[in-house]
Amino acid sequence: MTEAWEALVPRMRELRDLASAAKLLHWDQSVLMPPGGAEARAHAMATIESIAHDKLTDPEIGRLLDELSGNGSLDEVRASSVRVLKRDYDKATRVPPDLVRALAEIRGLAYQTWTEARPRSDFSMLEPHLSRFVELKKEEADALGWEDERYDALLDDFEPGLKSSQVSELFDELVAGLKPIVESVLQHVGDPPGFLSGDYREARQKDFCEWLVAQIGFQGERGRLDKSPHPFTIGIHKGDIRQTIRTDPSNLTDSLYAAMHETGHALYEQGIPDELRDLPVGSAPSLGMHESQSRLWENHVGRSRPFAHFLLPKLKERFPEELGMVDLDEFYLGVNHPRRTLIRVTADELTYNLHIALRFEIELSMFRGDLDVADLPEAWNDAMERHVGLRPGNDSDGVLQDMHWSIGGYGYFPTYTIGTLYAAAFFARAEQDLGSLAGDLRAGESRRLLDWLRENIHARAYIDEAGDLATKVLGAPPGAGPYLDYLRVKYGELYDVSL
Ligand code: ZN
After folding, report:
1. CA-CA distance, 357 to 413, in Å (whole number)?
2. With contact defined as beta carbons under 8 Å apart, do 56 and 89 qualify?
3. Contact call for residues 130 and 114 (beta carbons, < 8 A)
4. Is 262 a catalytic residue?
C-alpha cells in the first residue's frame, strides 16, 4: 500500500511541474508577450498540455489509483489526493489526445484574435474561431459523458459535481429576489460623485495598490503584482502567487477594487499549506470557492463603511488634490454607486449578478444547440436589455467584452455568482464566530478575519469537495438568502429605503 503511494508521488510532482510551466506561459502571454508571439506560444502551450495529458493518462497511474482507491488505511490527505487525481484521470482518459491538442491550439488562436477583435468591435473576426471552439467543446462534453444536460460536463471542470439544474434553481431564486431590490434602489440613486472620475496618475495608483494589498496580508516576497488588460491571479507554484490589476487614469476605484478582489484570490493561494501544494489536493476545490474569497475581500471588506473609513485618509495622502474635499459619506456612497452598465467588470455589487445570469442563459442555449455562434451578438443584446435594462451599441461593449469564451471557459461564469453567494454566507458566519469585525476594519486591521479564513477554508485546500466544505463551515449549503439579506440591509441604509 505504502509502495503504491510512494510510486504515485513523483508522478504527481511531475504533473504539478508541468501545470506550473503552463501557468507561467499563460501569465507571460497575458502580461508581457508581444502579439507577434501568439502563434508560436499557442503551439508551445499545446505541446505542454499534450505531454501533461500523456503523463496523466499513463495506465500505470490508473493501476496505482485503483490499488489505492477505497483503501481505509490512507490518511485524510492521501485519501483525498487519490480521490481528486482519480477524477482527473477518469476524465482525461475519456478525451482523445487529438481533441486535447485541437482544443489547446484553438484556445491560443481565439484568445489572440479576441485581443484584436475587441478594440475593433468586430465580432466577425472572432466568429470562425469561436464556432470551432464551441463545436470542439461539444465533442469534449460528449466524450466526457453527461446525463441531463451537455452543459453539466463543462460545469464540472469548474464546479466539480454541480449540475445545470442546480445552477438554474440558484439563479431563479437570486434573480427573482434581486430584480425588485435593483429596481427600487436605482430609483433613489443620484448622479455619481465627482471623485469617481478624475485624473489619477497611474503610477501612483499602482503604488497605492501595492501598499494596500500588503496591508491586507498579501506576502510580497511570495508573489507579484503586475498590470494586464484583464486582472487575474495565478498560483504558479508555492512561493510564487501572481496577481494583476489594470489602471485607468480617469478611474481610481477600478484599480483599487481589482486589487482588493485579486488579493482575495491571492490570499487563498498563499494560504494553501506548502505541504499540500505538490499534491492533487493543493488547490481550491472549485472556482466558486475561489471566487468567494475575492468577493469577500472586494465587497464585504473593501466596500464596507468601516473599511472606507480606514481607506479614505490613506488615499487623500496620495491624491490630495483629487480627494481633499471628499468626506466619508460621499466616498462610501461613491464606491458603492449602483447603476446600469453594459460592462460586467465595471458593474457594481448590486447589479453584477444580473450580468452573470444572462451569460449562463446564453451558454446553456449554445450547448443545448438552441443558439448558433453567428447569432451571439443579437442574443447577447436582447438578454442584456432584459436583465440589465440597456442595449449595447456595439460588440465591444456587448458580446466581445469578456475573454472567457475565447479561452474556452464555457461553464465558468456561474462560478462568479456561486462565489458571491458563498462570500455573503462566509462573512456572516465569520462575524458570528468572531463578533463584529467593524472595529477591526475601521483600523485597517484584517488579521482576525484572515486567520478565520485560513483556518476554516484555506488550510482545507481541496481535501473536501466545495459543497461539502461550504456545508461544514456554514452548517448548511448556502442559497441566495444570505446574499439577498446582506444587500437589503446595506442598500436599505445607503439610500434610506425599505427593501
Ligand atoms: Zn475573481
Report:
1. 9
2. yes
3. no
4. yes
pLDDT at 1 > cutoff 80 = no
| Residue 353 buriedness (CB in 10 A; 0-12 / 13-18 / 19+) | buried
Alpha-carbon distance values, 485 to 70, 424, 480, 482 (Å): 42, 9, 9, 5
Bridge partners of 248, per DSSP, are 251
Q: Which of 105, 140, 262, 363 is catalytic?
A: 262
Closest CA to 52 of 11, 10, 105, 1: 11
pTM recorded for the entire structure: 0.93
**234, β-bridge pairs:** 242
Task: Give tens-digit pLDDT for 242-300.
Answer: 999 999 999 999 899 999 999 999 999 999 999 999 899 999 999 999 999 999 999 99
d(CA 67, CA 343): 50
Q: Output the CA 232–ligand 1 centroid distance in Å.
A: 7
Neighbours of 138 (CB within 10 A): 17
Q: How far is the CA of 414 from the centre of ligand 1 (A)?
A: 12
Task: Tell me the CA–centroid distance for residue 57 and ligand 1, in Å.
Answer: 30
Q: Which amino acid, residue 42? A: A
71-80, 385-394, 395-404: which has the minimum mean pLDDT?
Answer: 71-80
Long-range contacts of 200-205 (CB under 8 A, 24+ apart): 200/249, 200/250, 200/251, 200/252, 200/319, 200/322, 201/249, 202/247, 202/248, 202/249, 204/318, 204/319, 205/247, 205/252, 205/255, 205/256
* Ligand 1 geometric centre to CA of 60 (Å): 36
Among 399, 368, 369, 373, which residue's Cα sits nearest to residue 384?
A: 399
Grid coordinates representing 122 are 468586430
pLDDT in tens, 95-146: 998 998 899 889 989 999 999 999 999 999 999 999 999 999 999 999 999 9
**What residues contact residue 15 under an 8 Å CB cut-off, 6+ apart?**
52, 55, 56
Q: Where are the alpha helices (DSSP H) in 218-350?
A: 252-271, 274-277, 287-295, 305-318, 320-323, 328-335
Question: What's the rounded Cα separation, in Å, for the pair 329 and 313?
Answer: 13
Alpha helices (H) along 336-375: 352-368
232/311 Cα distance (integer angstroms): 23
Would you tell me the crossing angle of helices 76-94 and 123-144 to the nearest 10 degrees? Answer: 110
User: Distance between CA 400 and CA 67 in Å, rounded?
Assistant: 48
Tell how far the Cα of 250 is from the centroid of ligand 1, in angstroms: 23
